[in-house]
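Example for tutorial group B:
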């Protein structure tokens, strides 16, 4: 429901949301997903994965909508088909547990192309910012533009930058952005894009999230905004596996749309005021 004008998540969708019932699964599970898959989105993997209570395994990497098992992809030193064969041998053919011993339970490829055997999705580190910023929604802003044009005082977005990291940090998961927002309209959207900024000023998109502000209180039904009224909202960021190198900074960009990854709100030209955003990110040592 992320690419429709009415993203209502009510009973019809809850009945079909398998993540809510993942705890009932008794079979062993081997999941594969791409961190860059914006069709079947990565959070559809992570929400299900976190609720599993069985023998669970995951292969996740820097690809789009791809079946790595049928494609015979190399997962670092591991052959994807060999892993799948061993999984079937154990759980369909009754082979001893030792058949899976050469294969880690988790294989996750970061955007530094390194493979790691942990997935600390629920870790949290808080990064708080100060100050307010005002911008006007054009309905044409996109995360692809943010990473190329980061001019101070851009009237179509707001941005905050952390101090350079003293040591590398791995973002393994999604996280959230919580911010105070007011809109001079009865409706609107708030997009959050998180960028990795190198010392030379070049940037790279790490992750992003988009919230229809009419659904900030509940996804079950829209609530019209009170023009000019402030509310504290939380934007969920899509999961990724990315290492921010020492000396690099994180840049948070807030805007009224991301026209590549979401359907822009039909009303444009609204003025937004955003204040004191807080990032809660799954940052750990790499």
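The residue assignment follows.
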């Amino acid at each position: 429901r992320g690419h429709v004008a009415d993203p209502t998540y009510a009973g019809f969708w809850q009945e079909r949301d398998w993540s809510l019932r993942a705890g009932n699964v008794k079979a062993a599970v081997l999941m594969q997903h791409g961190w860059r898959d914006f069709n079947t989105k990565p959070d559809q993997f992570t929400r299900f994965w976190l609720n599993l209570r069985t023998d669970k395994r995951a292969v996740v990497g820097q690809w789009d909508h791809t079946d790595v098992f049928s494609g015979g992809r190399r997962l670092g030193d591991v052959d994807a088909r060999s892993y799948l064969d061993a999984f079937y041998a154990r759980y369909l053919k009754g082979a001893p547990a030792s058949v899976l011993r050469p294969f880690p339970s988790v294989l996750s490829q970061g955007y530094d192309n390194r493979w790691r055997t942990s997935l600390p999705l629920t870790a949290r580190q808080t990064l708080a910012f100060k100050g307010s910023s005002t911008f006007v929604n054009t309905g044409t802003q996109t995360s692809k533009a943010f990473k190329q044009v980061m001019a101070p005082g851009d009237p179509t977005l707001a941005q905050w930058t952390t101090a350079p990291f003293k040591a590398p940090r791995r973002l393994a998961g999604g996280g959230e952005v919580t911010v105070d927002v007011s809109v001079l309209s009865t409706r609107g959207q708030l997009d959050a894009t998180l960028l990795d900024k190198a010392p030379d000023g070049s940037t790279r998109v790490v992750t992003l999230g988009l919230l229809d502000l009419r659904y900030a209180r509940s996804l079950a039904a829209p609530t019209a905004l009170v023009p000019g009224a402030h509310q504290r909202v939380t934007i969920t960021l899509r999961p990724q596996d990315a290492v921010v190198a020492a000396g690099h900074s994180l840049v948070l960009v807030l805007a009224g749309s991301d026209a590549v990854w979401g359907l822009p709100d039909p009303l444009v030209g609204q003025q937004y005021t955003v204040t004191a955003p807080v990032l809660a990110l799954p940052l750990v040592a790499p």
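The chain is about 10% helix and 35% strand. Compare this with the pattern of hydrophobic and polar residues in the output above.
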